[in-house]
């Protein structure tokens, strides 16, 4: 029984009512738990359940927060510590069955030496705040990342080349072609292009008919950016040493990111071999689709999109998940701050907006041919393999529009496709991400073809390169005179 003033009644009820200090309350609480085994078991069960639920709903954030506070134990240790501490308290009480109302204290006796351990339960406010923060992170998604390059300080300004591009495109549709045969044109395909045999094929055929040397880089489209950058560098060197001609690079989607990385990482070796770079619908600043799938705390956590994407890329397509991670905002920020594009490289950024009207539901993309075993007139029959890519990309474009209020081609937002220091082309014609590389099954001859768009982009790039050379040639004598 705790000591009480002598002028107070010595009854148990009165002595409890007069206890006002924290230490006494803790002692009474300890005695209560050790005296009633059922309360001891219930308390242990509550602590175990709270620890489990906290880990499920709040992840590591709350654990880190609690472990940083010296007044509370980490949640990872609460379960084992509580069981051990209550066991010690119970053993101390069982040593004397007649002293259930005694306060458990540290004794010098070796048989009953125990220590009172102070435990603080999980903070409900902290748990609630962690849940709120997690919900806010999920709702915000990539809203703060889209267009980050335009807000980055120290970036070179962009120039609008849309008007000149439209003029060149009109000339091409009137059969006025200006691309010379003194250059080699290298097309770099994007993600999953290895599984679309007709990727860039119509453009290469179109260029070949004009007598131009055009190649499609045979890279592993599902490989990491740095790996593809090295392979593109080797492609350019092989073309240059074999033909003696400089190369104009045109990369679509992730292919533009790979090509830009090749020039950023190996510019000293490629400077005299590359005439310029076109990035068409490339997530140069990053992709909200990739970020929302792979980033922790985003939608991919709740529907297992990250795991499904890993199975798709790594198991089915035999690729590397790093290929998708490399176009997330976090990876792009880190890479571009370390490896910016050279300032003296002529660059064009091209981005479009996908149509989200009902007409896209009937549009099919021709991605491959299927050969049938039957023979017609001595030749095997071929059937087109078509996929409703336009409808899928329209759905993605609608999602990005609703969630982030951003216009996109279905995969890449317009703001993330603009490269600092480049000439930007912003056409008003609706073109989705797949239209640029796969011919529609019901192609209308009156409409612009993707191969014509690529020719116009490369023609504009060549003009920029020529103006740069002219500017350098007229500036050098002035510098020498000084």
Automatic annotation (TrEMBL):
Species of origin: Zostera marina (Eelgrass)
Top-level lineage group: Eukaryota
InterPro entries on file: AB_hydrolase_fold (IPR029058)
Protein name per the record: ABC transport system, permease protein
Signal peptide residue numbers: none
Biased composition (Polar residues): 102-114
Compositionally biased intervals (Low complexity): 90-101
Disordered: region residues: 87-119
């Amino acid at each position: 029984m705790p000591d009480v003033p002598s002028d107070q009644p010595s009854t148990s009820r009165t002595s409890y009512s007069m206890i006002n200090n924290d230490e006494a309350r803790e002692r009474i609480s300890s005695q209560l738990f050790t005296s009633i085994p059922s309360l001891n078991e219930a308390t242990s069960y509550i602590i175990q359940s709270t620890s489990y639920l906290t880990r499920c709903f709040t992840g590591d954030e709350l654990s880190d927060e609690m472990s940083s506070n010296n007044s509370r134990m980490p949640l990872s240790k609460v379960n084992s510590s509580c069981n051990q501490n209550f066991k010690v308290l119970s053993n101390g009480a069982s040593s004397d069955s007649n002293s259930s109302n005694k306060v458990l204290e540290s004794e010098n006796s070796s048989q009953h030496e125990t220590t009172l351990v102070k435990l603080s339960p999980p903070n409900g406010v902290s748990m609630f705040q962690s849940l709120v923060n997690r919900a806010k992170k999920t709702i915000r998604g990539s809203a703060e990342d889209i267009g980050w390059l335009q807000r980055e300080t120290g970036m070179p300004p962009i120039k609008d080349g849309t008007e000149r591009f439209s003029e060149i495109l009109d000339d091409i549709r009137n059969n006025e072609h200006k691309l010379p045969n003194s250059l080699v044109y290298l097309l770099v395909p994007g993600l999953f292009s290895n599984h679309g045999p007709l990727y860039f094929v119509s453009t290469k055929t179109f260029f070949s008919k004009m007598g131009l040397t055009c190649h499609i880089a045979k890279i592993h489209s599902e490989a990491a950016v740095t790996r593809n950058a090295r392979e593109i560098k080797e492609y350019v060197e092989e073309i240059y040493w074999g033909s003696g001609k400089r190369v104009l690079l045109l990369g679509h989607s992730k292919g533009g990111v790979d090509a830009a990385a090749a020039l950023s990482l190996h510019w000293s070796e490629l400077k005299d071999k590359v005439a310029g770079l076109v990035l068409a619908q490339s997530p140069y600043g990053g992709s909200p689709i990739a970020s929302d799938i792979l980033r922790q705390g985003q939608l991919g956590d709740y529907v297992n999109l990250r795991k499904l994407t890993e199975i798709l890329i790594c198991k089915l397509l035999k690729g590397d998940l790093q290929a998708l991670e490399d176009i997330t905002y976090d990876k792009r920020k880190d890479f571009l701050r370390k490896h910016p594009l050279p300032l003296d490289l002529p660059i064009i950024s091209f981005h479009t907006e996908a149509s989200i009207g009902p007409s896209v539901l009937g549009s099919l993309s021709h991605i491959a041919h299927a050969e049938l075993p039957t023979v017609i007139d001595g030749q095997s029959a071929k059937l087109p393999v078509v996929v409703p890519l336009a409808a899928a990309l329209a759905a993605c474009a609608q999602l990005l529009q609703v969630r982030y209020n951003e216009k996109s081609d279905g995969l890449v937002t317009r703001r993330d496709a603009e490269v600092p220091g480049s000439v930007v082309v912003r056409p008003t014609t609706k073109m989705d991400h797949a239209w640029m590389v796969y011919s529609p099954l019901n192609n209308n001859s009156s409409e612009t073809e993707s191969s014509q768009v690529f020719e116009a982009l490369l023609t504009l790039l060549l003009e920029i390169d020529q103006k740069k050379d002219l500017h350098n040639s007229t500036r050098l004598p002035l510098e020498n005179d000084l």
